[in-house]
Design brief:
The chain is built from 2 helices and no strands. The chain is mainly alpha-helical. It has helices at 5-21, 24-61.
């Protein structure tokens, strides 16, 4: 069966509309925020470990 240009448009158009109306740019922002949140959580965990180790060291030294 040969497909016409009209058939191609009918096939691609719904995807095209979802892509742009669905907010591909919003998806980018969401991904950036997610990465930023994960990075922030990791930094907080690192800072917590450093603080705990500092407190243990100070307790051993009798501060």
């Amino acid at each position: 069966r040969n497909y016409s240009l009209f058939d191609a448009v009918l096939t691609v158009f719904p995807w095209f509309i979802r892509y742009y109306q669905g907010g591909y740019q919003d998806a980018k922002k969401i991904a950036q925020n997610k990465r930023s949140n994960r990075r922030n959580e990791t930094y907080q965990k690192i800072l917590k470990v450093i603080q705990e180790n500092k407190e243990k060291a100070e307790a051993k030294e009798g501060y």
